[in-house]
Amino acid sequence: MKEPIYVDHAATSPVHPSVAESMLPYMTTVFGNPSSIHSFGRKSRQVIDQARESIAKLIGAKESEIIFTSGGTEADNMAIVGVATANQHKGKHIITTSIEHHAVLHTCQTLEKQGFEVTYLSVNEAGVIDLNELKNAMRTDTILVTVMFGNNEVGTLQPIEEIAALLTEYDVYFHSDAVQAYGSVPIRVDQLKVDLLSVSAHKINGPKGVGFLYVREGTKLNPLTFGGEQERKRRAGTENVPGIVGLMNAMKISQSELQSKQIRFQEFQELFIQTLDEHQINYEINGKNAKRLPHILNLYFPGINIESFLVNLDLAGVAASSGSACTAGSIEPSHVLCALFGTESERTKASIRYSFGLGNTKEQIQIVAEETANIVKRLTRR
Length: 382
Fold this sequence. Notes:
CATH architecture of the largest domain: 3-Layer(aba) Sandwich
Structural class: alpha/beta
CATH class of the largest domain: Alpha Beta
Oligomer: single chain
Helix content: 40-55%
Order of helices and strands: EHHHEHEHEHEHEHEEHHHEEHEHEH
Number of domains: 2
């Protein structure tokens, strides 16, 4: 059997060997509870403090502005629900987009059931919002705008700096889900002027089950969990010390390799497209007329059956996906592609996402593109 090739890094990524190695001591020898005052606890507390300092520096924040979480979903929930409940005396209107991750969409829908009002901005066929639509959606009772940095399905980047500049005229908080974007594009909160930002370790070759929420100093935010006084009383629960160490080291590596990864993944995309063209395959790039994350390539193949395509890819030893991991196995078409092209478009049912990452080589991408071309030919043969 051929060695399987993993091109679904947008769903999750393998832990970098040096990250895994860095975590081991904090599972075995430095295992104290960071809230304990004895030497075992103090050692754990020290490493959390060091990680918080390093992570804050990497994104241009203050140490006090970093809240460790169990990952991107919790960070998104904390940002949206935390701000909404803490500021509802000023208003109950939230603005987001129609292509957010479900961690944002489902949280907003839950708040709607609790009396909040949510405006879902549309996107063009490239997957980008219209700043004028955002401006027109602003109201006196708007308290929060939440717009993802880079889309997890088609890779489209939103104009975060321009959104932040527009929002300076209003008394609102601005949150961005940067789970898919961090590690692929430069992100510094001091330059972006966002108030809240979500990041997850497992998308950047760190461990699953850990992430953080950046919260700008002075932001009014209610906690979601209650118990101890961890994370400055903002998130109760014993900290995941090994995970936090892994997150810190994954972030350091991802930042040091940022430019080389961008170049490499762009080469992968070009090689993939060139191979399809050589085979005269009929395809379209979803989100092609926008700035996109370099590691995501979402392709529409007219006339294919998506389930058959994925099964054939899997049999060929290629792990790709038809959308976000959170909807894998669902027969519902991608809400992102529906937002881009309309619910009746064939693109919503005949598109595949390839996402590149650690361990992928040009040789592998060539094989994946060749296998893709062969499968398309088979499935569209009349």
